[in-house]
TrEMBL record:
This is Uncharacterized protein. The chain crosses the membrane at residues 6-27, 39-57, 77-98. Keywords: Membrane, Transmembrane, Transmembrane helix.
Length: 106
């Protein structure tokens, strides 16, 4: 499978959107700033769209926190990083599948 510049741009854009959203969420949580429940809706859909990666990583969350290598919040950021990578991969895979279907239908 050949990856183009647009695929890399899609990956890094999806990665950045998810990583920045969850980094903001953790910042608000850590600083005890008010976070309305409706702000969680985009996060739910981001986790849903990164499903195979987020399901595995969040089931292993207690394992990562138990390691205590990076500290409590650093392990959360590490999980955020891995889930964001998974979300970026899913975006590129879906993009490639739709481009392939479009080429087959021509």
């Amino acid at each position: 499978m050949n990856l183009t510049i647009r695929d890399y741009m899609a990956f890094f854009t999806a990665f950045a959107v998810m990583f920045i959203y969850y980094l903001t969420w953790y910042l608000f949580r850590y600083m005890s700033w008010p976070w309305h429940n409706s702000y969680n809706i985009p996060g739910f859909f981001l986790l849903l769209l990164s499903w195979p990666w987020s399901g595995f990583l969040f089931s292993a969350q207690s394992y990562f926190e138990g390691l205590n290598i990076f500290g409590k919040y650093s392990s959360q950021i590490f999980l955020n990083l891995l889930t964001s990578i998974g979300f970026g991969l899913n975006v590129v895979i879906v993009k490639k599948v739709f481009v392939g279907i479009k080429l087959m239908l021509k």
